[in-house]
Each structure stands twice: as C-alpha cells, then as structure tokens.
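step: validate -> pass
step: tokenize input -> pass
step: predict -> running
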Amino acid sequence: MMMNKKVILDVDTGVDDALGILLAIKSGKLDILGITTVNGNVSLEQATLNTCKVLQLAGAEHIPVIQGADKPLLRSSYFEHRVHGKDGLGGALKDMPVRKQAENGHAVDFLIDQIQKHPGEVTLVMTAPLTNLALAVMKAPELVHQVKEVIVMGGVVLGFGNVTPTAEYNIYVDPEAAKLVFKAGFTSLTLVGLDVTRKALLTEAHIDSMGDSPLAGYVRESTADYMQRYYERNGVRACAMHDPLAVAVALNPELVGTKHYYVDVETRSELCDGQTVCDFQNRLLQQPNVHVGLDVADEEFISLFIRTLRG
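step: predict -> pass
step: emit ->
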C-alpha cells in the first residue's frame, strides 16, 4: 500500500497560503505532520490565527500549528496588507469564533525534530519567507541531508518582481534567509517562482465552477480584493495561485517543468535587493543547487485545484 507523502507546510497565511493549505488537506494524499508559521504577509500572530481558522474551515483541527520566527533574520518586517487585506484573508473569516490553538514550542525545533524522526521522508513546502528553515539549518546543519525535498514558493528568474522591479515578495522579505537556504546543500530544492505561478491564474469563472459549498464561498470572498489588486497591476481579473502551485508540486511534481541551475540571492544592492540570480550559462562556475521552475501545466493544475476543493 502506498503511504501518503509526509509534508510540513511553512506559511505566513495570507490569501494564497490559505488556498494552498486547503489543497493540501482536501487532496487526501498528504500526511501533514504540522504547519509552521512565520512573519511575512502578516505578523506571526495573525498568520497563526489565520492558519487555525483555515484548519477549522477544512475540518482539520487535528493538524498541529507551531509558531516560528516573528521577524526576518536581520531586517524589519514588511507586510502585504494591500494585497491580502488587514487580516491577511481578505476579511473572509473575520467573524469565525476560533477554537483551534497553536501548540507549545517553536517551529524551528518542530522542523528539526520531525525531519530527524522521519529521515529521508519529509517534504518541506515553504510558501513564506524562509526564516524558519534558515534558523533550523543554523541550529542543526545535518538536517539538509535528512530532508527528502524542499519546495519553495519564491523568486523569479526570467520575469519581473512583485514587490520591487527585480524581487519576489517571499525572498525580498528575508533575503539573508533565502541565501542561506539555497547554499545549505539540500539534496533536492525546487523553486516554484513567479515565472510559473503567474501562469497559474484562478478566475471568477473557475470559482463559479466550484459550486456553492462553504469552501467555494470562502474562496470567492477571500480572493475578491486580491483579484482587484491583480487587475489594477496586470490588467487581468484573476488570483495568481502562487502558494497552491507549490503544494501541487508536492502532489504531482510533473505539473512544473524544472531545470537545474546555480541560484543565489542578492542581499547588498540598493536597486536589486532580494533578487534571485539564476546562472543560466554557468558563468560563476558553481554546482547547480536549485531545480528552477520554468514551465507549468497551468490548465491541469487549475483543474486539479477545482476538482480537489469541490470534493
């Protein structure tokens, strides 16, 4: 019998992290060991609260939630309230009474403990700034050889950024953490960046096709403002499925076509801080360290998402 893939989700729960969490749970194909939270789109406290609410919505309160870093390694917080709303979920669950609470302990210790308890079995799906994982690597460097794979929603190598002209949000918020993670020596590290997530667009027609369940209602409400912001910036009324696509890669790696390159992160530039620099022509003569997502089966992915949430 096939065992479900063991995963830990690391989130800063905004609109698209929540959709990623729902996809992971509703797929029924992942053994979610826990969800770790971090400062990012919203504060650590808000991200944790949002995660607990989403688990309640999904009827998955048994999944442990563990709080992590409340700020980047070296920098100040940089929230995305304009995109995700003041509460991070576009106001969609603002009246929900919260029963679910975070566990005691710290995300960094949880990551280390679970990876060492299940050597070679744990997939990390990171859809937030990489602060928690960077701290875990600093505390227990051996874990880079014990993790099965790391899937990171972050970066952009061919297109433009979404927070500066060159930087994607998750990498920009804590570029030092991203640099450390990329250089740590993980056996398999896949970058699901804006190059592919911008092609994975959820439209109002897609949401309509999900029916009128409470989950579909939640998706419609939580993405409304997000879609409006995306329209203002890009001229398309849609929700870019950044974080759900990273989760989908854990479910089916073939959804995203990758190539193996050396990738580093700029941390000392006035103009280009947080840029993911991909050495396409091996000019730096470094060993490839990242499987970079360059192509996506976008229709297949959106179909998987709709099918899964429709149940």
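step: describe -> The longest strand covers residues 30-37.
step: cleanup -> pass
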